[in-house]
Amino acid sequence: MKIITLLENTLELDSSLIAKHGLSLYIEIKDKRLLFDVGPDASFLENAQTLGIDLSKVDILVISHAHGDHGGGLEEFLKINTKAQVYLNTYAQGEYFIQREGKELEYIGINHAVLQTYRERIHYIKEKTEISSGITLLRNTEHSTFKPSAILLKKEEGILVEDSYEHEIIMVIKEIDVLHVFTGCSHNGIINMVMSVEKEFPGKKIQSLIGGFHLMNTTTGRMREEEETVKDIARALQKHNIDQIYTGHCTGTEALGVLQEVLGKKIDGIWTGKRILL
User: Fold this and answer.
1) Crossing angle between the packed helical segments 253-263 and 227-239, to the nearest 10 degrees
2) What's the half-sphere exposure (Cβ side, CA atoms, 13 Å) at 128?
3) DSSP secondary structure letter of residue 11
4) Rg over CA atoms, the chain
5) Average predicted confidence (pLDDT) for the chain
6) CB neighbours (10 Å) of residue 213?
7) Strand 24-29 relative to strand 178-182: parallel, antiparallel, unpaired?
8) CATH no. for residue 162?
């Protein structure tokens, strides 16, 4: 399997690519080409062109959850790709907001007009679903351990309430007898999401875990959680015996450093343009 980070918050020095707050991963596995998230806008398309990747050949797009930094580029992708099927959690059709201190309420959900315009290509997941051979989507079902402290909002029957993140989805790619797990932001808590996968695939080893853990304050760029809390997350990940972890985007570089203190070489960062072979 080959994974290329088309978009993430950070860049290598002297890179000609574009970095923005968001995530987009291009994945090649056997005869399939996948996208996992499309960032906030068309920047991932520009980066793909720079990297020589033809996104018109992508077969499947999975959007991890209903926030604009992961699904904002959807319309631009669908304009240049006429065949890919798009998969989202059924709750991604909701309305989601953020209230930043001292600022007006901001809508951060996916553009509903785009979902309607391209409805024939869009599929909503309500339960564990194998969307292609070896590629499974599932919702988080565990809520027993740490969840990030950030509070976002959703509209429910016309009233703003705290977001429960039911709109998140986990992608699992099975190769022989091992699993590769992809998360977007892990608003439900990365350990809960790992446990959800283990419950759905009993006895199967998670070889790799890739995605954001939402440990960064997106306004300040600093680590949101206490250092000991982040170390507890790292120690919990250790217990699940995952061979390699790649994280970035909403995890933040500060939290990554703390995670590395515990996990060492088992965890690495991702950045725009990073290539991973599994």
Assistant:
1) 50
2) 11
3) B
4) 17
5) 96
6) 29
7) unpaired
8) 3.60.15.10
Q: Which residues are CB-neighbours of 78 under 8 A, at least 6 positions away?
A: 84, 86, 114, 118, 121
- Total Cβ atoms within 10 A of residue 133: 11
Please, which residues have CB within 8 angstroms of residue 36's CB and are 6 or more apart in sequence?
Answer: 23, 24, 25, 27, 61, 62, 64, 171, 182, 184
d(CA 99, CA 28): 37
Residues 13-68: pLDDT tens digits? 889 999 999 999 999 998 999 999 999 999 999 999 999 999 999 999 999 999 99
Checking if the pLDDT of 219 tops 90, the result is no
Residue 7 · residue 273 · CB < 8 Å: no
Q: 49-58, 99-108, 167-176 — which is least confidently predicted?
A: 99-108
188 close to 168: Cβ distance less than 8 angstroms: yes
User: How far is it, in rounded angstroms, from Cα 168 to Cα 253?
Assistant: 23
Q: Residue 175's beta-bridge partner residues?
A: 178
Quickly count helices (H) and strands (E) in the chain: 7, 18
The three-point CA angle 267-173-201 to 5° equals 95
The answer, yes or no, to whether residue 101 has pLDDT greater than 90, is no
The model scores a pTM over 0.85: yes
> Reduced to 3 states, what is the DSSP secondary structure of residue 191?
helix
Residue 154: how many other CB atoms lie within 10 Å: 20
Nearest to 87 by CA among 47, 127, 143: 127
When divided into structural domains, the chain yields a total of 1
- pLDDT band with cut points at 50, 70 and 90 for residue 134: very high
Domain span at residue 113? 2-277
pLDDT band at 201 (very low <50, low <70, confident <90, very high): very high
